[in-house]
Amino acid sequence: MTELLIVMIFLVVLSIEDILWKEVHLVLLLAFFTGGCLYYLIVRQMNMYEFFGGLVSGAVVLLFSFCTKEELGSADGMVFVSTGAFLGLTENLLLIITSAFLAGIGGTVAAVIFKKKGRKRIPLIPFITAGTAVFIGVGL
Q1: How many other CB atoms sit within 10 Å of the CB of residue 105?
Q2: What does the pLDDT read at residue 122?
Q3: What is the pLDDT of residue 26?
Q4: What residues have CB less than 8 Å from 18, skipping those under 6 apart?
Q5: CA distances (Å), 126 to each of 37, 68, 98, 110, in order?
Q6: Residue 98 phi, psi dihedral angles, 5° rounding
Q7: Over 90: is that where the pLDDT of 107 sits?
Q8: I need a labelling partner for 1 at 20 to 30 A (CA). Which of 51, 59, 84, 90 fits?
Q9: Coil, strand or helix: which one is 139?
Q10: Which H/E stretch holds residue 55?
Q11: What residues contact 57, with CB distance under 8 A and at least 6 apart?
Q12: Are 77 and 62 in contact (CB under 8 A)?
């Protein structure tokens, strides 16, 4: 549970940046990733395979970002690499799926209620934050 609170603090700050400026600072992303790695080394609440699996699951999202020419932002991929360092493979995969589901709902709401048309970009990090809040709410 402690790791979810640390993740939530980072995600709230990154969400604010993502919403206000449509970009996030690399320094914050690196601090988030480094914090996850240090947390793993100090606390060791998961085994090595779960830790590296979490990193790889986020790296796949990052690779997808590069393959789609930033349709999904590279910062979003880096966020998932960082959450993978804190949460491990299983919880990070759940977070990726939950965030995508919430972003789909958010995109539908934007399209239907706010009449957004075409290929408008919506920030993903706030939906990652919402997914983490869901995890905290259900006690994951």
Answers
A1: 12
A2: 86
A3: 95
A4: 24, 75, 123, 124, 125, 126
A5: 23, 21, 12, 14
A6: -60, -45
A7: no
A8: 59
A9: coil
A10: helix 48-67
A11: 80, 84, 89, 92, 93, 96
A12: yes
